[in-house]
């Protein structure tokens, strides 16, 4: 009895240390329409997981719930050790600093050049000019965009803009990276390049959750796959 | 964070130069009008404060007044708490003073023969007592005494000066309040427009983990710059207006030479503009929700 309690505590401790994202019975509704229904899953530290499903299945909503752009109507969410349901508003920016997001619409600032766009993630964290310069160029090198640092997003192709968004998401080396359809606007070669970049970042220890409806992206990757359909988590498998 | 906020604010000021320039000019006009009102109130205040030094009541005595009656009048005046000094002026002394003040045209008095002036008592009031109601009360008191033929103290002048002072102060305060609210609104509208225009940008900041201070700082700096610009412009405006009045208008209307310009107060104009700009900016941003 005594040993089993200790084992349980050790398991719980290990679980809480290693779990980066945890959803428990989470539901989200928009105007009486259910976007996500009683979803439960966990993602461990250092994992790279794909989230797939048809359009409108709830992938973006699930990501938004993770970076607190939306609040759950039911259930509990914990991200990087933060209990989202109990989180004070003043702590939201701190939670978001642990997450790098590649938004579906990129959310780039079109009046700033590539360098400034990527550097914004570091400016927000109060990183000084000298360190910022080194880290921004490192991130741009990782996505093969070092030569476009002076360009404005408007002059870049869709794929290049996507890479800028990825560079901005990784530059601060967050614990978690969320990517919403990161290959939505690019050709298969660029798409493969982007996935290679994510694998590199993942190898450095970041936890990655990629939402995509592109099956080619996760086919034979050996990574865990969460399947959503009409707001339900309908399956979990290895791709 | 602050150098970056200044950079962002500077970029926005340059990028949105026309709307910012318009706001600066509107605010500067508001501050200039407010300054003119303050300057007017200040000058009227200075003038009314100088008034007590020159103010006196003249009690003209009847001819053949007995020493007893004169003593009674002098004592009654001296005993009143509002009175500072009481001075007897004989009609001969009065004539001499008149001759001095007439200078080159004193010959007009030559044809008079006999001294037409009356003996008089000059009553000076304490500075704080120089008010229309005190003067009125004293005049009524003296009128009740035997031996006084007439009293003169510029009753209407005194009343109108004080009415103007009270009126100008009231109008000034109301005007300043309205103008301040208006100027805050101008700054509020400008920053609000910029805030709406940058809505997407602000949303991105929030999603990337920016704290409220990081988001607010450039807008407040922008408001401050608009306010400071308007303050400096209105300072230059009021200074130019003052010197134009002193050096140009006073040639035609000498009264303008007496206008006092409170430099130490006017120097606060840029600071007032800066504060108004920052307040307007802060109100425009309002509460930031995540």
Summarize the structure.
The complex is a heterodimer of chains A (239) and B (290). Chain A has 239 residues and is an alpha/beta fold.
Core attributes:
heterodimer, A: 239 residues, alpha/beta, Rossmann fold, four-stranded antiparallel beta sheet, 10 strands, 37% helix, globular, B: 290 residues, alpha+beta, Alpha-Beta Plaits, 2 domains, 10 helices, 4 strands, 70% helix
Give structural notes.
The complex is a heterodimer of chains A (239) and B (290). Chain A is 37% helix and 27% strand. Chain A is α/β, with parallel strands linked by helices and 239 residues long. In chain A, strands 6-7-8-3-9-10 form a six-stranded mixed β-sheet. A four-stranded antiparallel β-sheet of chain A has the order 2-1-4-5. The mean pLDDT of chain A is 90. In chain B, helix 1 (2-15) crosses helix 8 (212-252). The model of chain B has no long low-confidence stretch (mean pLDDT 85). Chain B has helices at 2-15, 17-54, 67-79, 91-102, 132-143, 155-197, 199-207, 212-252, 263-266, 269-285, and strands at 56-61, 83-89, 120-125, 148-152. Chain B has two domains: 2-50 and 160-285, no CATH class; 56-152, Alpha-Beta Plaits. The chains are: A alpha/beta (239), B alpha+beta (290).
Tell me about the largest β-sheet of chain A: 6 strands, mixed
CATH homologous superfamily of chain A? P-loop containing nucleotide triphosphate hydrolases
The percent of residues in helical segments of chain A reads 25-40%
Structural class of the helices, strands and pairings of chain B? alpha+beta
Main interface by residue count: A-B, 23 and 17 residues
Contiguous helical run count of chain B: 10
How big is the Rg of chain B? 31 Å
State the CATH class of chain A: Alpha Beta
Q: Helix content range of the residues of chain B, please?
A: over 70%
Strand content of chain A: 25-35%
CATH architecture of chain A: 3-Layer(aba) Sandwich
What percentage of amino acids of chain B are in beta strands? 5-15%
The number of distinct β-strands of chain B equals: 4
**How many structural domains in the coordinates of chain B?**
2
Number of domains of chain A: 1
Query: What multimeric state do the chains show?
Result: heterodimer
Biggest β-sheet strands, sense, barrel of chain B: 4 strands, antiparallel
Unreliable residue stretches of chain A: none
Please identify the structural class of chain A as seen in this structure.
Answer: alpha/beta
């Amino acid at each position: 009895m005594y040993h089993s309690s200790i084992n349980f505590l050790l398991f719980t401790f290990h679980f809480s240390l290693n779990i980066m994202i945890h959803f428990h019975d989470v539901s989200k509704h928009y105007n009486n329409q259910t976007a996500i229904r009683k979803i439960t899953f966990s993602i461990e530290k250092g994992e790279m997981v794909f989230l797939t499903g048809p359009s409108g299945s709830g992938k973006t909503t699930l990501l938004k719930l993770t970076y607190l752009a939306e609040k759950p109507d039911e259930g509990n969410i914990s991200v990087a050790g933060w209990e989202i349901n109990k989180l004070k508003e003043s702590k939201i920016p701190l939670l978001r600093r642990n997450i790098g997001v590649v938004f579906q619409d990129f959310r780039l600032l079109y009046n700033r050049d590539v360098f400034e766009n990527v550097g914004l993630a570091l400016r927000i964290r109060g990183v000084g000019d000298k360190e910022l310069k080194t880290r921004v160029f490192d991130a741009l090198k990782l996505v093969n965009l070092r030569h476009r640092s002076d360009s404005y997003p408007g002059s870049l192709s869709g794929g290049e803009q996507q890479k800028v968004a990825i560079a901005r998401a990784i530059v601060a080396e967050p614990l978690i990276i969320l990517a919403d359809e990161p290959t939505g606007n690019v050709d298969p070669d660029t798409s493969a390049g982007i996935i290679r970049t994510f694998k590199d970042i993942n190898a450095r220890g970041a936890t990655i959750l990629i939402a995509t409806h592109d099956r080619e992206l996760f086919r034979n990757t050996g990574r865990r796959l969460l399947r959503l359909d009409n707001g339900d988590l309908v399956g979990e498998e290895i791709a | 964070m602050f150098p970056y906020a200044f950079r962002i604010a500077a970029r926005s000021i340059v990028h949105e130069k026309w709307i910012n320039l318009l706001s600066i000019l509107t605010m500067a006009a508001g501050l200039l009008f407010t300054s003119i009102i303050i300057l007017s109130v200040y000058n009227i205040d200075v003038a009314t404060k100088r008034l007590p030094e020159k103010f006196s009541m003249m009690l003209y005595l009847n001819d053949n007044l007995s020493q007893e009656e004169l003593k009674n009048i002098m004592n009654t005046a001296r005993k009143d708490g509002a009175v500072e000094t009481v001075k007897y002026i004989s009609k001969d002394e009065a004539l001499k003073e008149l001759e001095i003040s007439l200078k080159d045209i004193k010959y007009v008095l030559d044809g008079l023969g006999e001294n037409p002036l009356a003996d008089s008592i000059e009553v000076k009031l304490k500075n704080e007592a120089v008010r229309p109601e005190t003067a009125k009360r004293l005049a009524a008191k003296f009128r009740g005494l035997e031996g006084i033929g007439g009293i003169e103290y510029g009753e209407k002048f005194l009343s109108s000066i004080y009415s103007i002072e009270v009126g100008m102060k009231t109008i000034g305060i109301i005007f300043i309040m309205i103008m301040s609210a208006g100027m805050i609104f101008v700054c509020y509208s400008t920053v609000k427009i910029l805030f709406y225009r940058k809505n997407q940008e602000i949303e991105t900041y929030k999603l990337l983990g920016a704290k409220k201070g990081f988001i607010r700082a450039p807008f407040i700096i922008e408001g401050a710059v608009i306010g400071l610009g308007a303050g400096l412009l209105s300072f230059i405006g009021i200074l130019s207006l003052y010197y134009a009045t002193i050096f140009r208008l006073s040639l035609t209307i000498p009264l303008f030479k007496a206008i006092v310009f409170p430099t130490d107060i006017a120097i606060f104009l840029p600071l007032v503009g800066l504060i108004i700009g920052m307040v307007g900016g802060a109100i425009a941003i309002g509460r930031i929700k995540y």
